[in-house]
Design a protein that fits this description.
alpha/beta
């Protein structure tokens, strides 16, 4: 059976400078603006360029997705889905089932706690996902429409920006 690859990326670090902004509209801070390109370069280095990028509509997630797309030479448009904003694992699965199409490798940019819960459900491994953390999951499905919360995926890799900074991994 052909496997699909799900790349789960928590948005990069956001700014809390402007207390007037609603959560959905918070931008990236300086660290976030450094981390997002780093994760895009990592995707190129690891030969994991996504065939589809889908992101939450929150400003910090959109900007993260756009930066990653630019640095990994992604060819398509980033698909935005409001349902990914602070989504539950089930809501995330529903979005992937709807938009995944024929893509072999999908990058999902969204938020905690939903992303951590999704990784745990799909892989059986509870991992802490700091901002801009990237998880590579292999899924034993032929079609995104076959994805379920009960799908038993395999966590292949987990990259955290601070670990990359320490060892120049990206």
């Amino acid at each position: 059976m052909a496997a699909k690859t799900l790349l789960v990326l928590r948005h990069a670090k956001s700014s809390w400078k402007d207390p007037e902004l609603v959560d959905h509209d918070r931008p990236l801070n300086k660290r976030g603006k450094r981390e997002a390109p780093r994760m895009g370069r990592l995707l190129v280095q690891r030969k994991l360029r996504p065939e589809l990028i889908v992101s939450s509509t929150a400003k910090r997630a959109r900007r993260t997705a756009d930066e990653v797309a630019g640095y990994c030479a992604y060819n398509g448009a980033v698909q935005l889905d409001r349902k990914l904003y602070l989504a539950s694992p089930l809501a995330i699965i529903e979005v992937l089932r709807r938009v995944g199409g024929n893509a072999g490798r999908v990058l999902l940019v969204s938020h905690n706690p939903g992303l951590e819960e999704l990784v745990t459900r799909l892989t059986g491994r509870a991992e802490r996902l700091q901002t801009a953390a990237l998880v590579q999951i292999s899924l034993p499905i032929q079609n995104w429409k076959d994805l379920r919360l009960s799908t038993e995926g395999r966590l292949i890799n987990l990259w955290r920006p601070r670990e990359l900074e320490d060892n120049n991994g990206a």
